[in-house]
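DM from R.C. (forwarded with permission)

"hey, sorry to bug you on a friday — could you get me a structure for this? deadline for the figure draft is monday and I only need the backbone to look sensible"
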Amino acid sequence: MEFRCRLKTESTLNKKDTNQIQLFIEEQSTIDTASLPSSLGTPSMPKQSDWRKDKCNISLLLFLYLLQGIPLGMAASIPLIIQTYGTSWSQQAIFSFAFWPFSLKLLWAPIVDALYIKRYGRRKTWLIPVQYLIGLVMIILSYHINDILLTTQASINNQPHIYFLTSIFFGLSFLAATQDICVDGWALSMLSRENVGWASICNSVGQTAGYFLGNVVFLAFESKDFANSYIRQPLNMELQSTGLITLPGFLLFWGIIFLISTTLVALLKHEIDENYDPNEPHFGLTETYKVLLKVFRLSSVQSIALILLTAKIGFAATDAMTGLELIERGVARDSLALLAIPLVPLQIILPFLISKYMTGRKPLNVYIKSYPFRLILGIIMAIFVYYTPTFQNYNKTFPWYYYTLAIIIYGIHQIFVYNMFVSQMAFFAQVSDPKIGGTYMTLLNTLSNLGTNWISTTALYAADYLTWKTCSLGGSQCETENEEKTCRILGGVCHPSIDPYYIEITICITAGIIWLLWKYQTIIRLQCLPITAWQIRSNRRKSHILAEDDESSFLITA
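My reply, with the result:
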């Protein structure tokens, strides 16, 4: 199907508006364009660059981004761990708030940029104390994490314990997000002008590696089954009741690494801006917030904001609940984590393969075409979850062909996820006002990530209210805590008579179909707008951006 649109010519625009648009503000280096570690853009590298000139700086950036991914990967491991304790859906929803800081960091990024100690360095003023705090929190947590998890397991219906666990990892994610702001800004000033393209590569590779270590590697080596089956037994080692590593040991190790590496950076790395230009204008704290407000007042931005905040409603149950449902049906959490390994090459190659379809004027055509296929994949994944118990062997394991089928389904799902992500990023890059490119891109990314987080959290919360449980002995109800306790005392188990996962899959996919019919034409029209519809008016002086009233002449209707 070919999408067509009628473009307004420049003559239909206010000539004064067109003539006033000047490209005079370079992209701000302090506010990054990536909001979530898993949302990695296609890195680009200058054609003429000598990376050897900056090899030490590139190595440092890779390591700093790797450190950043460790606490994020560990935070992503916690839902899988507590799910084995019988955590309720509402408690999973509470913990999902731990992932919100990366979606909200635009709120305090200007503060990190504007407030610093000049003699110490713009980036090191924040980077050093933040990394020290991450290291100290991880070390202290290593001595108490088992007690916290045991308390959570023993009092799984006691909300304060989940709140406490969420608060800890929310704090770690907040510190990691702040460190990301610092490193992104430092990367653009640390590297020479010809090698600045390496910043996105360092971000992608380092952050992904750190997340992989903190999530997949940790879950695999923490599992006694994985260690005994694939390491100890082949090496004729004595089988153990624990994995090769423990959660406290992993936290302690990386906490120490944070402290040592931060000390070395503080003492040995001096902050020098390789790209300093005294004539280049920079916004202060108040000015940056004023510019963001002006951008958000554009009717075109308000229209895309509504789309970004609601688009993922059709995928909420699939994305937020499928992995947890598989654990409920007997799939080991380390096996679930290891499924990500074959998908890593696919995730790296996909953006490059589909980028050639994003170079035209209408990159969101790919987004629209991929949307219904992703909805269909949600149905297929629900069917796969439903039949998972039938694949299970007598010893509670699963055959190799089950995991092969899982990888195929997840792989196809990733294709459509990346189709939508890359087309969305291409559209962001196309419409972002170059006068405030960094701020503009970060605003759009923030809206996109908020659209993911609030819908996922809501889906997890709603699942508890859609759950009806009965006791395996006699079929009595398990609606209250006392009824569940009575069932356990009698030796029974409370099973959901109606699984909320399938209810939410049905609701979400139906809502997704309605959303596509509702916003289809709006997306087409947004692509057809002239670029001036996305720009704030300015004269050559920076103050004019902040002082003038926005008089947008473009009205987008739903």
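R.C.: lifesaver. The first helix runs from residue 15 to 20.
me: no worries. The beta strands are 468-471, 494-498.
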